[in-house]
Amino acid sequence: MRDQKHRSPLGSGNAAQRFEIAGIALGEARAKNRDAWPILVEGKRDRYALEALAFTGPIEVLNRGWGLDRLIAYLYETYGTRDAHGGPSICMLMDWDRTGGRLQKTLTERLQSMDVKVCNVLRDHLSKALKPETRVVESLSSLAYDLLPFIDEEDPRPV
């Protein structure tokens, strides 16, 4: 059981449990990201939100003025098909609204057609845990105060 002192600012037990689930998922992703595991987000504000949560590794932005073909080729050439342990080479974190779902599905299918293994777990966890509060990645920065204790417990920041 997680330390109870982290639950008090969140109010109800349900909210605390949901933020804990989101924090653990973000902590795991932040640890992998620090080891050069890229996270693909929709825009600059999404990148800023992850940076507010102390993500320091590569964060790639979808909306950079490139077509999808060029972006997919870039991701393939830059990060390959698997990480060093044979796992997914890219984490995709599109918003958990309808448009984000379409983007996530399209990009995943196109990258997988090139044998690139993609991780969708972070988005799945965040969409289930944080849907009452938000449906977009950029709002994570406004939830940082509540999320960071759980993230830091899962992935302590280097000093």
Query: Any idea of the CATH class?
Result: Alpha Beta
Q: What is the number of beta strands?
A: 4
Low-pLDDT residue intervals, each spanning 5 or more residues: 1-11
The biggest sheet, with number of strands, parallel, antiparallel or mixed sense and barrel status, is: 4 strands, parallel
Helix count from the secondary structure assignment: 6
From the alpha carbons, calculate the radius of gyration and give it in angstroms: 16 Å
Structural class: alpha/beta
CATH architecture: 3-Layer(aba) Sandwich
Q: Calculate the mean pLDDT score and round it.
A: 90
What is the total number of structural domains? 1
* Bulk shape: globular
Give the fraction of residues assigned to helices.
40-55%
Q: What strand line-up does the widest sheet have?
A: 2-1-3-4
Report, as a whole number of angstroms, the end-to-end distance: 26 Å
What name does CATH use for the topology?
A: Dna Topoisomerase Vi A Subunit, Chain: A, domain 2
Fraction in beta strands: 5-15%
